[in-house]
Write a structure and sequence with these properties.
The protein is an alpha/beta fold and 762 residues long. The protein is built from 26 helices and 29 strands. The structure holds ligand MGD (2 copies) and molybdenum atom.
Length: 762
């Protein structure tokens, strides 16, 4: 017998024997299933499960003063659940009483697992709110700069995602698809909550077959695959804003821009044009100027601007461009260029933000909300922009700017994390390791002995999606999935919900937290909520019992989803005003200008990133390190699985570099190399490829962080070397892509990788 289950990377068919999973198979309704989830039952993963509550030995013996260097170095003592829950509840009570709820950091960023109810972040936030609140985070690592910027200019990032022109329209109408950072199908393997119908590889092939021409402007060629030839224009990382400005300069000086669209649908072009022409700063943003910054020949820039103006063009920008210092600028300038081209709102033209990062963009299915666990109200006002965690831990009381306001960092005594892996996701992990020693207690709910679990004081073992029932629901996806229990949890692992219910009971908040519902009652409640939201966009879903019986419901809309981004707005901008201050797209933003930020003025500008190949530091560290998303896993999830391991080189995360850079350093394919700069170093396995432009190296994220006693990271985690600075004072976003390194052959003895070892358990 088979049933279905949902994971971030897809729906899978679960083959059962005696009601328990024996194998996972691709979902037959998925045109391009992802292999990642097929390995979720691998013994290599099961071996690394947390099976019993575990307490760091020193903590159990009373070492709670903070400023400890022992986290991550000491053995854990396994205890029974009652003891563990009493200890966690007691510590929460103590910290609340002595320092207030604003001393608890519960931001708990992370992807966790698919399934609407057991979504770990929602669970931990709801729990912490039920006991008086916590210091939260805002925004995401994914979209720090863009998420803060875009509401001032266009719409919220959620709205932008919901309105993307669907692929069937692009297939019919788009004739030139220009992408900054490709349309990486490896990334579209996933969507938050599940990519159920993988549509990107097929859509790109069909677009190419129907005559759409693709140009990939990227430091790497292989982030686009259309099944046909396309033009690759290599660009120096971090310089896209200069290119976009020069394209705009050509449009304006040759009269190829769209004055009618600019006048009807945008505001502030008149304030921006003098900058473009160099009237305000003495530097016209010409192709020759941009050529020196981007490495792209000036003639190619000029010709490209003319082609874009003459053709039905979609300009697509990848999210990694804004995960960088001044990451607001490429997004703002791409939007501005799309306005100058005047094709926004036309079929197959305009802007994508972006096709590729997840399976969501380009979906023909309508967007509807609902089916999310309420997080209750958080009375604590302190927060951080998500990537400022080290700053917060290092500098309690210090002020920071965010989105026009001024705020200060809370003084954190207790960290509670459920569903994320900061010792994968944060930049400059050596610096985070030091700051991580400051709080008095760190509690982590985890399924696996991840680097973060190993650096906790208290680890509570959690079930996986296969071990609990849930609701598979994902924005603009093809199905709603009933996810039954198909596997027994190892040892004593419990659902996050069971853990938080038990803690809430100890802290007098059980009724608030559970509302008297068990898991099945919550599923029914969330499903019914989703059903109401679906009906609003013309989707009829059956009642819960019929749904659960059926196992999967294909979403069929009476009305088609949003097909052409901003079509209505273009037709009648007055009747369909945007929720920006002017109601139009803002090329100049009075509001942002009013914030008075030197690193984010009122219109898009070129500013040199703190690290890039044009910086003085490139003399010492001459390679720009891109840390992109891994194709064989989601972040650090399932890194020990055979699928992820099969992609390693010499057991380490591969780092790609160009034949010229490899030869200059005596590096051959398959060599172990050291990637380093002033901040740190890691070992990786070399891949020499002409798909990467000289001067650039690529080391995907997510190899479990594994620093040795001498500080050398042994497994190839790029966050051993990345830079932890904000994109700007507007967004405080993550700048992971802004990073210079040097790479050398590793000649020393090869250290063993310990990331996938269990900690010592007493
Ligand atoms: N250098 C560099 N760094 C980056 C990026 C980059 O481009 N470059 N990208 C950034 C981006 S965009 C992101 S989104 C982040 C991602 O960073 P994270 O979201 O933190 O990464 P994951 O590996 O998905 O971590 C999820 C963790 O949750 C655990 N988990 C799964 N399900 C459950 C559950 O039900 N309950 C509990 N309690 N735990 C569960 C998993 O075992 C895993 O350890 O990384 C960021 N880091
Ligand atoms: N398989 C898999 N898929 C994922 C994830 C995963 O972990 N695994 N993570 C998901 C998450 S949370 C997110 S946020 C998205 C992120 O999606 P993105 O941010 O779009 O993805 P990246 O892989 O970081 O980068 C995509 C491409 O951008 C190019 N690029 C980098 N810097 C520059 C630049 O300065 N200029 C130009 N023109 N190009 C540049 C890189 O060469 C890279 O190939 O991916 C999602 N998809
Ligand atoms: Mo992300």
């Amino acid at each position: 017998m088979t049933v279905l289950t949902a994971m971030h990377w897809g729906v899978y068919e679960v083959e059962l024997e005696a009601g328990r999973a024996v194998a996972l198979r691709p979902f037959r309704e998925d045109p391009d299933p992802s292999p990642i989830g097929l390995f979720a039952l691998a013994p290599e993963l099961e071996r690394l499960r947390v099976t019993r509550p575990a307490i760091r030995k020193g903590w159990l013996e009373g070492d709670r003063g903070g400023h400890t260097t022992r986290r991550g170095t000491e053995p854990f003592v396994q205890v029974d659940w009652e003891t563990a829950l009493d200890l966690v509840a007691g510590e929460l009570r103590r910290v609340k009483a002595q320092h207030g709820n604003q001393a608890i950091f519960g931001g708990s960023y992370g992807w966790a697992s698919a399934g609407r109810f057991h979504h770990a972040q929602s669970q931990v936030h709801r729990f912490l709110n039920s006991i008086g609140g916590y210091v939260r985070h805002v925004d995401s690592y994914s979209l720090g700069a863009a998420r803060t910027l875009l509401p001032h200019l266009l719409a919220t990032m959620e709205e932008v995602q919901a309105m993307h022109t669907s692929f069937p329209v692009l297939e019919e109408h788009c004739r030139l698809f220009v992408c900054l950072g490709g349309v990486p199908a490896k990334n579209a393997q996933i969507s938050a909550g599940g990519a159920f119908e993988h549509r990107v590889p097929g859509a790109l092939r069909r677009m190419a077959q129907k005559g759409c021409r693709f140009i990939n402007i990227s430091p790497t060629r292989d982030d686009l695959d259309t099944g046909a030839d396309f033009e690759w224009i290599p660009i120096r990382p971090g310089s896209d804003t200069a290119l976009l400005l020069a394209l705009g300069h050509v449009l304006l000086t040759e009269g190829l821009h769209a004055p009618d669209f600019l006048a009807r649908c945008t505001t502030g072009f008149d304030r921006f044009a003098p900058y473009l022409l160099g009237e305000t700063d003495g530097q016209p943003k010409t192709p020759a100027w941009a050529s020196a910054l981007t490495g792209i020949p000036a003639e190619r820039i000029t010709a490209l601007a003319r082609e874009m103006a003459a053709t039905r063009t979609m300009l697509n920008i990848g999210w990694s461009l804004q995960r960088s210092h001044h990451g607001e600028q490429p997004f703002w300038m791409a939007l501005t260029l799309a306005c100058m081209l005047g094709q926004i709102g036309l079929p197959g033209g305009g802007i994508g933000m972006g096709y590729g990062p997840t399976n969501l963009m380009g979906s023909p299915h309508p967007y509807f909300g609902g089916a999310s666990l309420s997080q209750l109200r958080n009375p604590v006002k302190e927060f951080i922009p998500v990537a400022r965690i080290t700053d917060m831990l290092e500098k309690p009381g210090q002020t920071f700017r965010y989105n026009g306001g001024e705020h200060s960092y809370a003084d954190i005594r207790l960290i509670y994390w459920a569903g994320g892996n900061p010792f994968h996701h944060h930049q400059d992990l050596t610096r985070l390791s030091r700051a991580w020693g400051k709080p008095e207690t760190v509690v982590v709910n985890e399924q696996f002995w991840t680097p973060t679990a190993k650096r906790a004081d208290i680890v509570l073992p959690v079930t996986t999606t296969l071990e609990r029932e849930d609701l598979g629901f994902s924005r603009r996806e093809s199905h709603v999935i009933a996810m039954p229990v198909v596997k027994d949890p190892p040892g004593e692992a419990r659902d996050d919900y069971a853990i938080f219910s038990a803690l809430a009971a100890r802290l007098g908040a059980e009724a608030v937290f559970t509302e008297g519902r068990d898991t099945r009652a919550w599923l029914r409640h969330l499903y019914e909520d989703g059903r109401i939201q679906a009906a609003k966009v013309g989707i009829t879903l059956p009642g819960f019992d019929a749904f659960w019986q059926a196992g999967a419901i294909r979403i069929e809309a009476d009305r088609p989803g949003p097909q052409i981004m901003l079509e209505d707005f273009r037709a009648d901008p007055e009747a369909h005003r945007l929720r920006t201050p002017s109601g139009k797209i803002e090329i100049f933003s009075e509001r942002i200008a009013g914030f008075g930020l030197p690193d984010c003025p009122g219109h898009p500008v070129w500013m040199e990133p703190i690290e890039w190949l044009g910086a003085p530091a490139a003399k010492q560290f001459p390679l720009h390190l891109l840390s992109d998303q891994p194709d064989r896993r989601l972040h650090s999830q399932l890194d020990p699985s055979p699928h992820s391991q099969a992609g390693k080189v010499a057991g380490r995360q591969p780092v790609s570099l160009s034949p010229a850079d490899a030869a200059a350093r005596g590096i051959k394919d398959g060599d172990i190399v050291r990637v380093f700069n002033d901040r740190g170093s890691c070992l990786a396995g070399a891949i020499v490829t002409d798909a990467i432009t000289p001067g650039v190296a690529r080391l995907s994220t997510g190899a479990w962080y594994d620093p040795g006693p001498d500080g050398l990271e042994r497994h190839g985690n790029p966050n051993a070397v990345t830079l932890d600075v904000p994109a700007s004072e507007l967004s405080q976003g993550c700048s992971a892509q802004t990073c210079l390194v040097e790479i050398a052959r590793w000649e020393g003895p090869v250290p063993r990788i310990e990331a996938h070892d269990l900690p010592e358990l007493l």
